[in-house]
Amino acid sequence: MAPDLGLILPVVQLGGRPVLGACELRFGAGQVTALLGPSGVGKSTLLRLLAGLMPLPAGARILPGDGGTLAGRIAWMGQQDLLMPWLDLRGNVALGARLRGQKPDLARAHALIQSVGLAGREKARPAELSGGMRQRAALARTLMEDRPFVLMDEPFSAVDAPTRHRLQGLASGLLAGRTVLLVTHDPLEALRMAHRVLVLRPGPNGAVAADLALPASPPLRAATDPAVLTAQAALLDMLADAA
Amino acid sequence: MRALIAAIGILLGWEAFVRWSEVPPFLLPSPIRVGNVLWTRWDILIGHAGTTLTEILLGMVFGSLLGASTALLLTAWRGGRRWLLPLLIASQAIPVFAIAPLLTLWMGFGLASKIAMATIIIFFPVATAFYDGLRRTEPGWLDLATTMGASRTAILWRVRVPAALPGLASGLRVAAAVAPIGAVVGEWVGASSGLGYVMLQANGRSQTDVMFAALAILASMAMVLWFVTDLLLRRMLPWQPDALSEDTSR
Q1: Same domain, A68 and A172
Q2: Which CATH class is domain B39-237?
Q3: Any idea where the ABC transporter domain is (chain A) (predicted)?
Q4: Chain B residues with CB inside 8 Å of A126's CB?
Q5: pTM score of the predicted model
Q6: How far is B80 from chain A (nearest CA, A)?
């Protein structure tokens, strides 16, 4: 199982405005932590800091539980599928190795394409795939990286509700054992997939995170579970307060 | 098909106008007269057309290579941007027509000066279109590549360049359209063969029908060049979204 991931942040400023408040967070080992909050509260900023897409402010520290560094140990999945239109499905899934100048493990790529239900479409270009299929391809590409830490920025926001529901189930199974930080706008998605739900609320010195009490059952939770529905109502209230 | 019908319609209208208005042939020869020149002097004209086509094609090769490598250099090398970009813009402030006599002076009356003209005129659209494409890579792709641990070089060759190929293709289409201008202007300034030379000679002797014949060949060459370039680019970039392809194929 992947180690846990600690993060110590000073106040993070963007353009002279405090975005994230000083905080100390720990994301559970092999667990999915969902991060919710109103638009612009700093969810993506937090994710980008962890992903190394933004320079860490002075005093900030990222502490993987096994004492190593985070560099080269994260996989990133964004809001759009970000498939390269000039590569076929297999080329897209094997993108990471190609970019690092390594020989891609094609057997593994094939197995992952199969596990996301796209077997037989290896030669298809992204334009020939539906939105849901493209997102599944992006999931396969993320898993192909085989990293202990996975950062997901609203990964399923671009697909329709039934497809999203199916993708959550698929992703939950395939991500098992990894330490995942999932940024989402969808309360039900958070409650179905996450072991822990954090809500970011804006404050005068930057946003602060608050925990939400979750149903006792482990993920993947059924959308029809009354406990999930109760928690969803509480989460919606919390989000409405935060906005 | 429609283009052919339109062309025949224009030719018929032109013929009718010449007959009806009795305009003298040295001002406006009838299409039949031009066709006659094309038929009887084909062997001479085709030789001159070959010269011009050689200049155009070599100009396209050199201009495209030079333009594309400049765009790559501007993207890959930060210092280069500061020095080369103003130079690139300034080079376009000088009209190509104004330096044509200089090029002929330096490189002689042969092919070299015309190829240089075509190269210069092609260079800029290719360089700017490709450079624009290289600059406007989808930021998400760059983020993804960064998190995957790609080097700057790998990002350039495996993400930025393929993403910019549709931009380069637009530049090459413009290049195909303007290349004949460079070659013909070069020939006007001083040459011993080529369609531009034929037109200049014919003009001096009031052989307007010969001028039109040369012009017809030049126009057909330019159109064929454009369509072949367009077709090749479509074949080579099949992923490129083309929302209008349904309309243009008919």
Answers
A1: yes
A2: mainly alpha
A3: 5-227
A4: 239
A5: 0.84
A6: 25
